[in-house]
Amino acid sequence: MLEYDIGTFKNIFRGLDRAYGQYRVGEQKENGKQGGKAYITKGQITDQMWQDHLDGKDPSLGIIPIMDDSKCYWGCIDVDMYPLNLKELVQKINKKNLPLIVCRSKSGGAHIFIFTKEPVTALLMRDKLADFAAFLGFANCEIFPKQIEIRADRGDTGNFLNLPYFGAHKETNNRYAIDNNGKPYSLTEFFTLHNKLALTEIELKELSTTKKKDSLFDGPPCLEHLMNEKIPEGGRDNTLYQYAVYAKKKWPDQWQDKIDEFNHQYMDPILPSKQVLKTVNQHEKKEYQYKCKDQPMCSVCNSQLCRTRKFGIGNDYDHDVTDLTKYESDESVWFLNVDGRRLCISTDEFFDQSKFRKACMNALNILPNKMSAKDWDARIQALLALVEVIEMPEEVTKVGRFDNYLESFLSDQGEAMTIDEILIDKAWSPEEEEVTYFRLSSLENYLTKKRFTNFSSTQMCARIRELNGDSTKKKIRGKVYHLWFVPRLTSADQSDLPLPDLQPKVPF
Asked: Which of 372, 391, 410 is the last residue of a domain?
């Protein structure tokens, strides 16, 4: 692999520098999506990992785009829809002159990238990608970065995206950028395309999928996108309903005429007068809310932007709660997005709606709408169905911490020369045996000093037995004591400390 390839690739996909993702390919699922195991590892990415990715050596590499300062150099729309015509997608993007690069994902879907020449806020990146996703009809697809901020102080890492060009120079490479004819770009051609399309922060801010003169800047963005082209059969009734809600809010005295004008200008073919009159009569009798979850609106929805519009969804729509991550340990910690902002909660706060709303108010200054118990359970189930589980290292669990403290106790107290010294809280390892003896009370005192209070005496004894230890009785100074023992630490278990130089100094 060329050094040029690695250096340029690293620079393009800069992201969080204290954690990364990896993916091991498994069997393909029935829905066409590539199966496998994804996981996050804390630590820095080595040059060898970048090279292994481009060489196609499993596992492939994933990068978390958002950095600790909540900025990023790139973002992506992850389209998991099958089958997907990548050629038509690229042509639609190019027709609109959007600076997006479409890469085939490992499952045959699309990763639609946008790159910047300088770091921009994750908020700006997500806002623009949400607009592009809505324009392309992928409003329900995942957007990376998934957060507008991460809780580095709580160990949060955000979410990673699998990178393209796994096995870049191999015939088996199936993760590549697509040109206007549906053909793959080579890695070098991808570099050239990146240099051509990467934007400054100002250029990104000015980018839009709608023309101001045609836009409803005070209404739902879904209507903006639907009005870019004629609305065909299959989506006309719902779109007219959506527009009626908007028109009634904006023109309370002439909204009926506006509905008729909308029908003639944007429907193909126009709806019969009878159908339009039915919609008008329906809205005259009752105040209705926007149907954000119905087609075709849901495919071009941008709820975040809609909330900011004068005649948008406002309080009619609940806050977005998405992208659940579980850091699995004895006391699991949960991270999720609320309107793109990162929230860290306990299992109790996640389970209990009242506690969850309080946590949102305390950390984010927002109060999600109260839901019925049935709807709340459904929300939790939906989040759990897509949860990303990150297993914490054993040493941060209660058991792992106890094991470490036990080892420290056996070595830190100083080795007893005779069995009598067990009475002064030392551990004794007789030469004729492969075990180390100690008093449980001595271990408990040591743990108290270390402020480890997570284990009861019963739990300590149980864990010692799991470590192939046990209890026994021995006579010390004429009295019988209850002692515990574990297998003696070997040299491999102990730190290799440098020995002092005991050679006499020779005068100069």
From this structure: 391
Distances (CA, A) of 57 to 17, 20, 61, 348, 466: 21, 16, 10, 41, 38
How far is it, in rounded angstroms, from Cα 49 to Cα 163? 12
Structure token digits, residue 35? 């199966």
372-393: pLDDT as tens digits: 999 899 999 999 988 888 766 6
365 belongs to a structural domain: yes
* CATH code of residue 459: 1.10.10
Determine contact, residues 346/333, Cβ cutoff 8 Å: yes
Structurally, the chain folds into a number of domains equal to 4
Q: Which residues of 297-315 are buried (b: 16+ CB within 10 A; e: fewer)?
A: bbbbbbbbbbbebebbbee
The tokens describing 506, both together, are 């020779």
Same domain, 99 and 110: yes
Take residue 241 and report the two structure tokens written for it. 């309903």
**Contact status, residue 370 vs residue 379, Cβ threshold 8 Å:** no
Strand partners, 23: 38, 60
Strands 71-79 and 34-42 come out as unpaired
CA end-to-end span of the chain: 54
Q: Which domain holds residue 271?
A: 212-315
Residues 322 and 282 in one domain: no
Q: Is residue 508 part of a domain?
A: no
Q: Which two tokens stand for residue 419?
A: 């069995």
Of 357, 391, 425, the position where a domain reaches its end is 391
CA distances from 29 to 32, 34, 69 (A): 5, 6, 37
| Predicted pLDDT at 413 | 72
Q: Examine residue 39 and state whether it is found in any structural domain, yes or no.
A: yes
CA atoms within 13 A on the CB side of 408: 12
C-alpha distances in angstroms, 227 versus 206, 220, 222, 258, 492?
21, 11, 9, 14, 71
pLDDT at residue 445, as a whole number: 92
Let me know whether 41 and 157 are in one domain: yes
Residues 177 and 305 occupy one common structural domain: no
Q: Is residue 507 part of a domain?
A: no
Pick out the chain residues at pLDDT < 50: 1, 213-214, 491-508
Edge-to-edge, what's the strand order for the sheet holding 435-438?
435-438, 479-487, 470-476
> How many angstroms separate the CA atoms of 108 and 29, rounded?
12
Q: Is there a single domain that holds both residue 159 and residue 194? A: yes
- For the entire predicted model, the pTM comes to 0.69
